[in-house]
Structure formats: structure tokens, C-alpha cells
Amino acid sequence: MLAVVLWPIASAKAEAEIVNDDFKIKSSAPGIELFVRNKRPAGTDVSRGDRTVLYVHGATLASELVFDLPVGGASWADDLARAGWDVWLVDVRGYGRSTWPEALRAPAESNPPVATTAEAVADFTSAADFIRAKRKIDSLQVIGWSWGGVISGAYAAANPDKVSSLVLVAPLWAFDKPVTAGPPKKAWQEWTLADSRARIQKGVPAEQAKLILPDSTVALWEKAMRDSQPEAAGRTPELFRSPTGVAADVSWQAQQPYDAAAIKARTLIIRGEWDDLTPRSLQLALFGQLKNAKIRELIEIPAASHFIIVEKARDRLFDEVRNFLSRH
Q1: Which keywords annotate this record (predicted)?
Q2: Which of the four pLDDT bands, split at 50, 70 and 90, describes residue 13?
């Protein structure tokens, strides 16, 4: 088991009966520390693998900015904690409050892509090992969104006895045809908030965009983004930065990113009806490869996009995932 060094960076406190702790833990890479957050119901037994869940983010937005975004006063992390789960999230290197490699501070062209999928899986493994050791449990439940579906799926495939349930929200998978001209040759990319929203809501009918993602939610998300990268405000236009490692993994265009047949955990794939960023064909292909999962389910939620976690349909997503995780 990977040895870790940790210290609280925010003391535990009860808020609406939820205890919150933030940590920094060591990764397997020298000099890289990972941000890990824990939310759990106060006064409950947390030494249960069937009630311990770890979430990992997608290709551009750190975990805190989606999974723990308090839409309407409560995030998905809050919802699970209030329902009795010991909830964890992790940011891989180069995202959120985890260590940003020096390449992310240097000119983009000076270094190759940062935070590849292999590196992200290694970081996720460090977080999962830390949680299992801290809670003294053999296995846990896992949720991955978008690229996080590849990270968590690869971990579940490599560690079949350490994952009891796997939830893949709009997961990436092998594309039917190339989606880029070639791998990036620089360490990081920049984008605006408008770029990000357009990308993750690709496929939503124009007249439905504000209905499923109200202005109040957009404003909350934009504030969280600005708080996470205050230096973006000093750029003209306002530009946010993320690693290009995920884009460098062009093998996804031609082959499966991991062996899904090695997954034994109960697995749920869940997607939004209007998600054109990760088309239905990707999830159907992945579903077909989950031949050895104890249970496999695929659910499509109406009137939702790739950004379903913070959209109007989030309540249906939360209900479906809670029900699935409860059927251990």
C-alpha cells in the first residue's frame, strides 16, 4: 500500500449535520500532493465499504467545481452525505487544489502534455489507497464523470476486488472516428467560461439551454471557477487553464482505453439524453464490454446534457445513483 503523509487543511465542522474535512496527501510522484475532500454525516459509522464513495472529475473541471457545487444550497456530495454515505472527492495533478506541475506555469510549448490518463489513474489509486487505509475497509464505491469515467473504470479493471460498485456518468470511451487532427504538443490549454459551457452542453436544443441550466446556476459555477483560478481574471480575455494530458491519449480514437471485461464490480452507466460530447454510441460500446460485471445497467435521463450533475435533471441523477449504490 502506498504510504501517505497528510494533514488537515480545514478542520472538521458540522454544517447541516455534515462533517467536512480537507486533506493534502502524497501521490506516487515526487513533489506531487493531491487534494482530497471528505463529507460525511455527523455521528455515523464510517468504516463501511458499502457506504464509502470516491468521485473523480473530468478533463477540465476539478471535482469541487461540479461534484461539490452547492446548487440550490446543496451539492451532489452533500446529497450523498445526507443519505448516509462517507463521501470523498479527489483532484488529480494539475487540477483544482492538487499540485500543479511546473509545466503548467511555464510557457505551454516548453513541455509535453501534463496529467495523462496513466498519471491520473496513479493519482486516483493513491487517493483510494489512502481512504481504504484510513477507514480500514477492503473496498469502496466509485463515481467517475466524463474522463473520470476512464480513470475510475481503469482503476476498477486493475483492482477488481477493491471496487464494489462503479458509477460512470457520461463516460468517455473509444471513438468511432478521429476527433482531433493529432495529439497536442503543449502542456496546457486555455479556455473561457463560455467555451467550457458550450462544450459540456453540446447537443442541447437552443431553446432548452436556460431551462435546464438557469442563470443562477451558471453564476454560481462561474464564481466557483474564478475562485479556483483567480489569476484568470488578470488575462484579457479571461482565460482558464487545464492540462492537455487527456487530449494526448489519442489511442482512444482507435482502441479501448482499458479492458472493461476485467471489471467485476456492479456497474451503472448513466447519461443525459442531449449529451453530444460523449455520444450514446460510446456508452453502448462500453456497456457491451462489461461482460463480467456482477450487474450492469445503462440509464439515459431525458432533458439533460453532459453537464447533468448541475442541471435541472440532477435530482433524477441523484436518485438513480443512490438507489444503485444502495443495492449492494
Answers
A1: Hydrolase
A2: very low
Q: Is residue 2 part of a domain?
A: no
Helices within 159-212 (DSSP H only) = 193-200, 209-212
Q: Is the pLDDT of residue 143 over 90?
A: yes
pLDDT over 80 (residue 188) = yes
Which residues have CB under 8 Å from 206's CB, separation 6+? Answer: none
d(CA 207, CA 185): 38
Give 234-254 as a 3 state SS string. Answer: HCCCCCEEEECHHHHCHHHHC
Is residue 1 domain-resident? Answer: no
Domain count, the chain: 1
Domain of residue 287: give its range: 7-326
Tell me, what's the pLDDT at 149?
A: 97
Contact status, residue 108 vs residue 243, Cβ threshold 8 Å? no
Q: What is the CATH number of the domain that holds 160?
A: 3.40.50.1820
> What average pLDDT does range 15-41 have in this prediction?
92
Q: What is the pTM of this model?
A: 0.93
CA gap 245, 116 in Å, rounded: 4
Helix (H, G, I), strand (E, B) or coil at 257: coil
